[in-house]
Amino acid sequence: MLRGYIGGGPLGAMIPGAMIGLALCLLLGREKEAGIITVFAAIGIGFGGQETYGQTVGLSVKPETFSWGITGFFLKGGIWVCWEARS
């Protein structure tokens, strides 16, 4: 909902990105680096949303390419989670 109402596109995706960054800092006890982690989370999710939104969602809308779209969601989400968990 935030992407459509506040900023739209990558700017709208930055808001949940910042929230995720702050939540992770609180959960992992990284309050000292919270500012820089939040900035990078916001920018990363903003760029990620911009790059993959049209590709993957566009595939999942059409019935003939729906399975490719869902596969793309799982692959891109899984890679993102593994990359973030690494650091």
Can you put this structure into words, describing what you see?
The chain has 87 residues and is mainly α. The protein contains four helices and no strands. The protein starts with a helix and ends with a helix.
Low-confidence stretches are none
The fraction of residues in strands falls at under 5%
Question: Strand pairing plus helix content: what structural class?
Answer: mainly alpha
Specify Rg, calculated over alpha carbons. Answer: 15 Å
Helical content stands at over 70%
The mean pLDDT is 80
Q: Given the C-alpha coordinates, what overall shape results?
A: elongated
Number of DSSP strands? 0
The H-and-E topology, N to C, reads as HHHH
Taking the sheet with the most strands, its summary is: none
By DSSP (H or I, 4+ residues per run), the number of helices equals 4
Summarize the helices and strands and which ones pair or pack.
Layout: H1 2-5, H2 9-28, H3 34-61, H4 66-86
Helix pairs in contact: 2-3, 3-4
Keywords:
single chain, 87 residues
Briefly characterize the structure.
The protein is mostly helical and 87 residues long.
